[in-house]
Request: fold
Amino acid sequence: MSLSIQRVGLDEVGILSAMAKQTFYDTFTGTCTEEDMHNFLNEYFSIEALREEIKMEDDFCYIARVNDIPAGYLRFKEDYSGLPLMKKWKALELKRIYIVKEFQGKGVAQALIDFFHDYANKHQYEAVWLGVWEHNYRAQKFYAKYGFENSGHTHDFPIGNTPQTDIWMWKFLK
Reply:
């Protein structure tokens, strides 16, 4: 198995959009109405929305490929708007990490989280943090395996009109 991780280029936004929509749907289907899901996917994972993210130099999005097939992606950014208390440290937020269903359990998520940690260490971040749905225990367990802890802070993450709550998890590097 050949695994590569590369920054998403503007010419790959269509691939990213399709993967982002499918992986989010696969993860959260049944947690909200189909209408809310459809509207959310079209608002946040449209080609136009993702193109705007990718155009920002300080917004990092990478695709993992297995044997040249898109298998997952992650997005991270130094952004303190979700949890302003993180401004106490030089901190990097993991905004998204999703793996295509058929590649789950095959090392792709581990490779992406290792890539994220390597980036944070190389750029001398003091902390990394992320939001995860309060009922996504599998993801919480995965993050805990990599040293993330529940910060005790939460934030609203509605999908359309369906209220949902994420917990903030963090990890201190120094």
Notes: The mean pLDDT is 96. The two ends are 34 Å apart (CA to CA). The chain has one domain: 3-172. Residues 3-172 form a domain with the Aminopeptidase fold (CATH 3.40.630.30).
